[in-house]
Amino acid sequence: MRRFLLNLFRLGVKELWSLRHDPMMLFLIVYAFSAAVIFVSAGVKLEVSNAAVAVVDEDRSQLSARMIDALAPPFFKTPVIVAAEEVDRAMDVGRFGFVLHFPPDFEADVLRGRAPGLGLTIDATVMVQAGNGAAYVQSILLQEAATWLRQKGIEAQLPIVVTPRIWFNPNIEGRWFSSIMQLINSIVILSILLVGAAVIREREHGTIEHLLVMPVSAFEIALAKILANGAVLLLAVVLSMELVVRGWLGVPIAGSRALFLLGTTIFLFSTTALGILIATLARSMPQFALMSIPVFTTMLLLSGNMTPLESMPTVLQWAMHASPSVYFVQFAQGLLYRGATIDIVWKPLVVMAGLGAVFLTYATHRFHVMLSRSA
Amino acid sequence: MTPTAAAPVVVAGVTHRYAGTLALDGVSLAFAQGSSTAIIGPDGVGKSTLLGLVVGVRRLQRGEITVFDGSLRERAVRDAVAPRIAYMPQGLGRNLYPTLSVAENVDFHARLFGLDAAARAERIARLLEATGLDPFPDRLAGQLSGGMKQKLSLCCALVHDPDLLVLDEPTTGVDPLSRRQFWDLIDAIRHDRPTMTVIVATAYMDEAARFERVIAVADGRVVADGGLAEILAETGAATLEDAYRGLGRPPGAAPAEAFVMPPRVADHGAVAIEAEGLTRRFGAFTAVDHVSFRIEKGEIFGFLGSNGCGKTTTMKMLTGLLAIDEGSATLLGRPVDAADIGVRLRVGYVSQSFSLWEELTVRANLTLHARLYRVEEARVAGLIEENLVRFDLADHADAFPAALPLGIRQRLQLAAACLHGPEVLILDEPTSGVDPQARDDFWRRLAELSRRDGVTIFVSTHFMNEAERCDRISLMHQGRVLAIGTPADLTRAAGAPTLEDAFIRRLEEAEGPSQDPPAPSRSTAAPTPGATVPHSLASPSPTSRSAGRGRVAASVALVWAFARREGLEILRDRVRVSFAVFGSLLLLVLFAFGVSFDVENLPFAVHDRDRSIESGRLIEAFTGSRYFRERPPISDESEIDRRLVSGELRLVVTIPPGFGADLLNARRPEVGIAIDGANTFRAETVKGYVQGVVLNWAQRYVTEARGPGTSLGLPFDLRQRWAYNQAFVSVDAITPGVIMLLLVLIPSAMTAVGVAREREIGSIANFEASPASIVEFLVGKQLPYVAVGMVSYATLAATACLAFGVPFRGSWFALTFGALLYVFAATAFGLLVSTLVRTQVAAIMAAAILSVIPTINFSGFINPMSSIDGVARWMGLLFPASWFQTIAIGSFAKGVGVLDLLHCDLALAAFGIVFIAAAALVLKKQEA
Predict the structure, then answer these.
(1) What digits encode the pLDDT tens for the residues B115-130?
(2) What is the residue range of B448's domain?
(3) What is this structure's pTM?
(4) A106: domain CATH number?
(5) Which residues of A touch B842 (CB under 8 A)?
(6) In angstroms, rounded to a whole number, what is the distance separating the alpha carbons of residues B49 and B53?
(7) Does one domain contain both B233 and B157?
(8) Measured between CB atoms, which of B726, B753, B860 is closest to A285?
């Protein structure tokens, strides 16, 4: 046992040296956990924010002007007044997500209580913004018109009082969500590529073969790669979490950070094991690149992170349960936003560990197959 | 193109350094036309550097080199003389592509030098015939034996009829028979083309002796230069090998003695290695065929044989790296078992190619070995120092192996294998490419190990003087042992004057009627024409090179040469092609349906503290909506928290006590709505839906309560029109974006390994020595991937329309044209990444990380470009993805035509051109 741990330590240190020797890799790791997280948290808005609105105003009245002014940041960009004939082309190339069309005599008709039609064209190809944005436009415009008319707003007319309270993120700050999303994405991409490519590289340089002549086992070699690269990434995650997510971006973390560390460790174990598994299936570096892309893009996009699992077709939901990222997203969202404790999030941790063990077992088996084939 | 009468190559005062280490120190030489010169010298004295400089693949630092009267400092001159030079870099088959066939390899080199179809066909046929490769033009280069590889390499080098032939240790690792055939071939070529100048670096002294002129280099300086006779006279040595030992020594120092193996004190009985009927098959091919031998403890047992005869396979079976198909083997009295760690501790192994860590220093490599082989920690430091001195590595202790010459790397491998004091050493061609002096030193150490420490040594070699030092040797051929015995016995039994002749005789007997041209006697100084080579190798029409063709046509031909080669390589790699095309298709299916912003069946629960008819009606409004799916109700306050935190519920509706009464009395009871805000998009959607449900319920309630005609008073009627996607179907909106995503990620990853891989493998030297420009090389490499990308595009677009039924409203021409520019830009991005990094690993990582973020986040795929600001917006605009997203969504959903997308096309074209231009600036055709 002592020998086993010692070998792991030696091989692990060697792994770290290899990594240190490639400044480009170090740069990429730093980038993925710092600048990338900041860019994505600043740029990705899944909530309605900065929506681009154009207005065709055929009324040019006081009311239409006030309603246009009501569509303001942060939800909307300052609306742009356009001519009717420009609308199609501008929407075609995606300049605006919404076009508001005031008909002639709009104000007069409102004053007469005729409830005139007000056109709102929505670019429905923009799934994240179209539905929620239209709801915002409607509620803001109704409120503004009511104020102008000195009437009660629609909410005040309801027979009940409804005050939706958003738990865990009361002001719907997208930054909280997208920063963690990118952090998870960076973990997935780097852990698979870093470890897998390290295996292929050792094979292409003949050093794996050399190792297997030495008094170390294939299992030790594989595990050392997992531990060393996993440790580097874990350190990167901790630094990113403390300095970038909490420090720079000021995202509050609801749950225990120690528990997050434990969960990340288990997740890294499963993804790095998966990376090794892919590497043993590929015969060369170009093949490895092409095999790993489908794996990590699927793990990113279908983890339930960006679009929840419950929106996917049932077959896909079922299939995605083989991906550790699904469990990590469940775990991370529960812990980081909702402040869940271990008694609530233990299940995903157990499943991730199980998946990791399965990947590693199969990878170790493939290791031998790969070596007898490569010769 | 008349050959220069004066010296075609003049080297004047050339000095070259690598990171402070002096490789060449003021070397001045001239090579006469039609002369043949051998360059000898210890490893790492600058032989390869000198040759690299002469052919122009290395950048001149100080001094001047003129080739065919032009200075190599000028690019124009380098390009102009490149077609007249042939260069074979060091290493087995370094200028070959293993997945291309024999004929395809030669064809590629011919195209590189602009030969037209007729010239190519004729030249390939003649060269293959002359080298005896003509029976298998379709065999893949990777499946050739070492000797055949070198012959093929030579064919490739000679295909354009060079006036200057430069060979860097062309016979390293090649068996004696193949070597002999190789040099006879060179002699024949020289005879047919007397004006051709030949410069060769070699580690074999018997080879050097065949040349008119021998130049010995040591420590970056020329220490001897002249005919063989002159050098022998000068040094007073009997053979060149002896003379060599005296060269480059400081004056006064006694020349090193030739090493003589001390006799073995036989220790009969104890057996170290025993093989019995050992057999290994690879598919239908039997690599090792019932091999049996017995090696005694302390014995030095040599393994000789032609390339690919099964030596390496046998050794790998003994080390447990390869499973034994049939027969048995014992090592130190125990059956060979890959899992037997105990035996591994007692064995040291050196593999044929360098297999230590390039990223660890010499010292770090040794330290790792010592520790893994369980040397006591206290002894490690001392042991390393001792071995650094013992194997003469002390000067290189902190160097990385990649920067060291072959000979020193081999010493490092041996040091690593011996560090733990093994009882058995298995050495697979440990001295290939090592200079004679260093090989003597190496054998001195082996002798010490064997004679003093009683280590059993099992070694394979191509050097006859090494074989002669073994206690016993085994001759192997085509997987079988031909003979075993002491070197003297074997020589005697074959009735041959030397062991080499005995060996070659046995091989020729075993081969039967030779497929190779009959080998003439070595002493033939000038072979008779036709007698050695069936056909003349000289070109009948010396100007068949397409010199007359226009610059543009020549350029196109070069691009096509690279493209064709890369294309063939891709087509041979089924895994890559199928992942590129079918992998994309699978991802399209997954993402088109999986990335969905349709919000339905949201799990919600009610905490009804009123339980009145009115509260029941309100709850019905929620359960009746397709957006919500009811979960078991909540019975007490604390449950709300727990079930939201666990992620089970997205929404909790709390109805206060007295709700019904308050409602009826218009006291406006307050209904609590708690929404899970972990996913912000979800939270907003739920909020909107809740408002919608409540509004509907309220409308109905008001109508019922106050009678028909009454309703909530709205000042205007917002008429929403859902443009482009009336049904608001996720698949229709997401699919074009998925195509956008796949057409950048996969093509860029494919090209990203391109240049980095050629650099790692070494085949980039072909380009460096060719007349092709950097742009021609890059674009040529890129085109096949553009083609793969377009096949993938066609598959994806067809699937989207036909299988998913995504409506297509725009112009197919606009989409396809845009896709072509997009794939061009994506592959160009991959190439740029590839030129910027050193390793393939870094290339893959960089391509993935740098492209994934702007593609998924800042392209308009998920959130619209129109609402992205600041740095993120620039990241999106400065990457091709966002522009093609406009084209894709415009063509599928919006019915936008070509003209309205022109600005996107222009942007994509600009990306492609800028990426390629940047890559061309970063990539250097010459090495340092």
Answers:
(1) 888 888 888 888 888 7
(2) 271-511
(3) 0.86
(4) 3.40.1710.10
(5) 22, 24-25, 28
(6) 6
(7) yes
(8) B753
